[in-house]
Write a structure and sequence with these properties.
The protein is α/β, with parallel strands linked by helices and 342 residues long. It has a domain of 86 residues: Udp-n-acetylmuramoylalanyl-d-glutamate--2,6- Diaminopimelate Ligase, Chain: A, domain 1 (3-Layer(aba) Sandwich). It has 4 helices and 39 strands.
């Protein structure tokens, strides 16, 4: 697909510096760009690389100039690139209809515009909304509700009673609504506590591959509107996430923890149960969170501490070997003085 620089700038509300009639046929990073490609540069050093490339135009922030390349000035080149990419790489479309190998319970309500791919199983009393897509190998449990424009990638599994809003994307291998980890100790053995809640996923959520979101023990596990969950994340029973949270890979939540809006949790962090993480809290990578985190606080480490405090502790730990050597030298000097009677 071809667009001119001027058309792209108009879509982005940007300013053209150079030849606005240049044809753009693709998008590429500067070090791989060819003639016809659009690239972007957020920093001066990136612009230098882009200017040496074959790219036909460069997205840049305000104040950038080039004597050799056509530029599109925008407020934020990275955001602009996110808006441009779908023009050149549109999402794959799926025809309406049900594959012959799919098994759909007679009581299920599947919208005529939905796509049900091969080897899907749709249980009793399931509702699937307009233009939703089950790509293949999906199992949808009894009483589940899928909104409009939901995309389930191959082998994503949705247990019974799950409620999924509009424009939700769930990637391959992810399981929604499995039993939470609930047991009580009775007469020398672990007795399973039945998990009878469900999972509620609000609009515009994306969940990566091989994640697991457990149903609530009694009430629901909730994923708030616009939240994005990376691959290999485990969300235990009755966790409640606010709107627009970012949860990165290999994070684990124990049960009953509540997140405010816009919380960010970096990779490989562990969050203990029944905590409250305030709005816009930020958890650094590999952190162990064992206490409530106030709104807006940034924490790091294990156990997690305010980020400046944690960094000071790490610096101090790095200085310990030298401090120990100096201490031993001082002890030797003191011992010599004591032996000589000084």
């Amino acid at each position: 697909m071809m667009h001119t620089v001027s058309i792209l700038a108009q879509r982005l509300g940007g300013e053209v510096l150079g030849d606005g009639s240049r044809a753009i046929t693709g998008v590429a990073p500067a070090d791989h760009a060819q003639a016809g490609d659009l690239t972007f540069a957020e920093k001066t050093s990136y612009l230098e690389v882009a200017e040496k490339s074959l790219a036909s135009a460069i997205l840049v922030p305000p104040g950038f100039e080039s004597a050799s390349k056509t530029l599109i000035r925008v407020k934020d080149p990275r955001i602009a690139m996110a808006k441009i990419l779908p023009l050149f790489f549109p999402e794959e479309t799926y025809p309406a209809g049900v594959h012959s190998s799919a098994v759909i319970d007679p009581s299920a309500a599947v919208h005529p515009t939905a796509h049900i791919g091969p080897h899907c199983v749709v249980g009793a009393d399931v509702m699937i909304g307009e233009c939703s897509v089950l790509m293949g190998g999906n199992h949808i449990g009894r009483g589940t509700r899928l909104g409009n424009d939901v995309r389930l990638h191959p082998n994503a599994v949705i247990y019974s009673g799950t409620q999924i809003g509009d424009r939700v994307s769930i990637h391959s291998g992810t399981t929604i609504g499995a039993d939470g980890y609930g047991y009580v100790f009775d007469q020398g053995r672990h007795l399973k506590m039945p998990q009878v809640g469900n999972v509620i996923i609000h609009d515009d959520v994306e969940i990566g591959s091989n994640a697991s979101i457990d149903r609530g023990a009694l009430g629901p596990t909730v994923i708030g509107q616009g939240t994005k969950i990376d691959n290999l994340v485990h969300v235990a029973h009755n966790v409640v996430m606010g709107r627009h949270c970012l949860i990165m890979g290999q994070v684990g939540f124990a049960g009953g923890t509540h997140l405010g809006d816009y919380v960010v949790i970096a990779s490989q962090s562990g969050i203990a149960g029944h905590l409250k993480l305030g709005a816009q809290a930020v958890i650094g990578a590999k952190s162990g969170v064992m206490r409530d985190i106030p709104a807006g606080e940034r924490v790091l480490g294990y156990p997690a501490a305010p980020d400046k405090q944690a960094k000071r502790q790490w610096i101090a730990m790095g200085q310990l070997p030298d401090a120990l050597r100096r201490l031993k030298a001082m002890e030797k000097q003191l011992a010599v003085k004591m032996e000589s009677g000084i």
